[in-house]
Amino acid sequence: MMIVEKQVESSDLSDVFMAHRPQLRWAALKILGNPERAEDVVQDAYLKVSEAAAVFDIKQPLAYLFQMVRNLAIDHHRRAALEMNLFENEDEGLHVPSLMGTPEAIVISRQHLTLIAKAISELPERTRRAFELHRLEGQTHRVIAAELDISTSLVNILIHQALDHCRAAFQSP
Predict the structure, then answer these.
(1) Given this model, what pLDDT does residue 5 score?
(2) Residue 6: what pLDDT?
């Protein structure tokens, strides 16, 4: 008997939502100032209504719906502002020409690869293998330790030694 009542409440809230959908969209639009984003908020609100209506007994469904849309719109606005602040510096770099395809960049990359390959070949076998397993094959320290029959702390030490050796290869003339 309780399940039937909850389903009736759910359909009532959905009916109220659909009857007032344009007003809810307008409320979101006033906060966001963008019709597409307002529509996204209304869609999100409808999804939440369809989930929450069966769980809660809502005394004032229209006020509940407007508050839900308002809260979602504010959250959406804050998230957009945060993302704009986070990524505005990245957008500034979009117009900087890339040096990746220039002949100079290719030569420099090849020289760096040659230095690294030489540095890796100079490493002791166990250190080289631990480094290759970790950096090139993406293996965990535990898997490397099992394969080389050493402790995970020794794996960590070997990888750091290899990295230090590679860094030193870049610094020496």
Answers:
(1) 36
(2) 39
